[in-house]
């Protein structure tokens, strides 16, 4: 089973012989465990054995697909001529010869093997909790199969399809269980049911009674652990409880129960779910009962209608990039110059999944630290600290491993002198950025706003050009004026005056920056990547301004927010929603995993 899905699959990892071995489920699990109980009325000399394995995966060509959607709606799908064929390639798995557990006595009785294959979908990360659950399910699934098959003999249900009743004529009963995320199960639903949304469980029947095979191929149960986790939280279950409930539900579908047929069929399947869970000593009353409770409480499992993943769901996806470089103003910060709680959560979640979030900004490092402290994102376990790498002051100060400076570029003194004199002559405020300090020539409310609104260090007033320039290295200069004044007067003048000595760039409409020639945020990002031994192929970048253009061009995948400049939008791979709509968080959930 499952070979036609096998391009998407991997089996679970081999346990190592240690005290922690029980935490990890083997991708090839060749253990046979004798189950002492017998069928209620089995044929003579028949015993159950459980074979839990992820070894060779055989074909999947089922007759029916049953689907549960959030526990509240389960549909049944039949392909042409009653068949569904899931077409995909094969993947090779290691084969291990099966061996019985020590102490199992030899017997001349004919044994009925219960063969269970547990797989993880290829893009599902090896999350510790999921691996623990997979190991538990390796033992739980055969237990559920055994109980369900025993109960078939005494079943008095009138709505169940009785094509499977007596398993005495088979040598082996096979079942595959696949754990996946919403993206994978949504693709199955779209391809084979024409419904483009995720569900919690799919049952795909393999049984073809006309073939008279010695093996009863029950089929495949596909469980989205992502949806299961959300439902578990909503319903007060643990994740293992919810997965057990979904597995029992899927198993009963494969044995002929179908609650969509009628109210009576729903009642019978609900009753069997409850009896199964109680008989196994597991929590819950079943998926159908949970759906009733959810409807009564007004709860629903809301799945995104597009590629955006839910907050809290990134643990079920592998990252597409090793690094996310983020701008600050107009990107991570909303129009109030704050990091929203949604954006903070997205940054923490991406970082917890092993993605390195790196700030690339025109701001000074102290300004970024102050902003992130207010969002509880600064410090040793935060997104930024004094030991963090980062690109600051438009790429003119770059910090690498352990927060050590690896690059600095200063403006030519002649350019600095001319700009400072221009500021005094025209009474246009100017800020000189020198490492972690801000210097200015006179007081002005726009100078104050750079500290109160944009969180930059409070500007030190030094009324003389000579005094201001004495003993300091200036990385960049920032003119502050109205948007009209910048566009109509300041930018045209300084774009011409700097010539081949410096460049002008804008991050905000009411600010103009003078920076060393040939530098940019993008060049700072490239310097940092070289320091890490990384390549742009590993990078996703999010920005909004003209000063983000080179960074967006460099990255493998660039996102410009809709509030950004037309120049940034022109070079980005996609245009995201605005910063006031948590555009950076949306980009992380939509594109980074």
Itemize the secondary structure elements and their pairings.
Layout: E1 9-11, E2 31-35, E3 46-53, E4 61-62, E5 65-69, E6 73-77, E7 84-85, E8 99-100, E9 110-121, H1 128-153, E10 172-180, H2 182-193, E11 201-205, E12 215-224, H3 225-235, H4 239-254, H5 263-280, H6 287-296, E13 323-326, H7 328-332, H8 341-352, E14 356-359, H9 365-374, E15 390-392, E16 397-399, E17 405-408, H10 413-426, E18 430-434, E19 437-440, H11 445-452, E20 460-461, H12 465-469, E21 476-480, H13 483-497, E22 502-505, E23 511-516, H14 521-532, E24 539-543, H15 549-554, E25 557-561, H16 566-571, E26 574-576, H17 583-591
Parallel strand pairs: 2-8, 3-9, 9-10, 10-12, 13-14, 13-24, 19-20, 24-25, 25-26
Antiparallel strand pairs: 1-9, 2-3, 4-7, 5-6, 5-11, 11-12, 15-16, 16-17, 18-19, 18-21, 21-23, 22-23
């Amino acid at each position: 089973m499952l070979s036609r899905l096998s391009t998407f699959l991997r089996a679970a990892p081999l346990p190592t012989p240690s005290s922690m071995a029980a935490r990890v489920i083997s991708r090839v699990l060749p253990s046979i465990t004798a189950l002492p109980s017998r069928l209620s009325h089995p044929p003579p000399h028949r015993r159950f054995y459980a074979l839990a394995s992820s070894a060779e995966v055989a074909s999947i060509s089922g007759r029916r697909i049953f689907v549960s959607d959030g526990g509240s709606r389960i549909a049944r799908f039949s392909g042409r001529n009653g068949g569904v064929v899931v077409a995909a390639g094969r993947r090779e798995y290691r084969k291990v010869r099966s061996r019985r557990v020590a102490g199992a006595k030899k017997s001349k009785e004919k044994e009925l093997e219960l063969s269970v294959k547990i797989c993880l979908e290829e893009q599902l990360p090896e999350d510790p909790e999921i691996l623990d659950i997979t190991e538990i399910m390796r033992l739980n699934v055969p237990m559920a199969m055994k109980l369900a098959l025993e109960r078939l003999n005494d079943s008095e249900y009138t709505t169940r399809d009785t094509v499977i009743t007596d398993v005495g004529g088979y040598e082996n009963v096979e079942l595959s269980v696949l754990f996946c995320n919403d993206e994978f199960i949504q693709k199955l639903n779209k391809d084979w049911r024409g419904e483009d949304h995720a569900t919690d469980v799919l049952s795909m029947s393999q049984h073809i009674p006309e073939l008279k095979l010695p093996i009863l191929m029950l089929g495949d149960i596909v469980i989205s652990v992502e949806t299961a986790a959300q439902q578990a939280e909503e319903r007060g279950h643990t994740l293992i409880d919810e997965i057990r409930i979904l597995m029992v539900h899927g198993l009963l579908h494969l044995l002929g129960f179908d609650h969509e047929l009628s109210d009576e069929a729903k009642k019978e399947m609900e009753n069997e779910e409850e009896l199964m869970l109680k008989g196994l000593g597991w929590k819950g009353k079943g998926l159908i009962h949970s759906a009733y409770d959810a409807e009564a409480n007004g709860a629903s499992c809301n799945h995104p209608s597009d590629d955006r993943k839910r907050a809290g769901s990134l643990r079920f996806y592998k990252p597409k990039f090793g690094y996310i470089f983020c701008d600050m103003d107009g990107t991570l910060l909303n129009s109030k110059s704050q990091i929203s709680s949604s954006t903070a959560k997205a940054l923490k979640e991406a970082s917890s999944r092993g993605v390195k979030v790196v700030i690339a900004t025109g701001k000074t490092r102290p300004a970024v630290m102050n902003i992130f402290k207010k969002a509880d994102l600064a410090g040793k376990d935060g997104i930024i600290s004094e030991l963090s790498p980062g690109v600051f002051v438009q790429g003119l100060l770059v910090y690498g491993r352990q927060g050590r400076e690896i690059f600095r570029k200063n403006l030519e003194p002649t350019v600095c002198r001319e700009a400072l004199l221009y500021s005094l002559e025209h009474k246009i405020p100017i800020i000189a950025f020198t490492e972690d300090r801000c210097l200015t020539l006179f007081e002005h409310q726009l100078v104050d706003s750079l500290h109160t609104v944009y969180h930059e260090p409070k500007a030190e007033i030094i009324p003389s050009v000579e005094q201001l320039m004495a003993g300091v290295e200036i990385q960049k200069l920032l003119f502050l004026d109205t948007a009209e004044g910048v566009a109509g007067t300041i930018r045209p003048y300084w774009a011409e005056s700097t010539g081949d000595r410096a460049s002008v760039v804008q991050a905000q409409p009411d600010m103009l920056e003078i920076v060393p020639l040939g530098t940019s945020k993008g060049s700072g990002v490239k310097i940092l990547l070289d320091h890490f031994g990384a390549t742009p192929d590993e990078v996703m970048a999010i920005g909004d301004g003209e000063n983000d253009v080179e960074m967006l061009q460099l990255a493998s995948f660039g996102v410009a927010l809709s509030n950004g400049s037309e120049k940034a939008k022109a070079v980005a791979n996609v245009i995201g929603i605005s910063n006031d709509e948590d555009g950076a968080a949306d980009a992380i959930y939509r594109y980074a995993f």
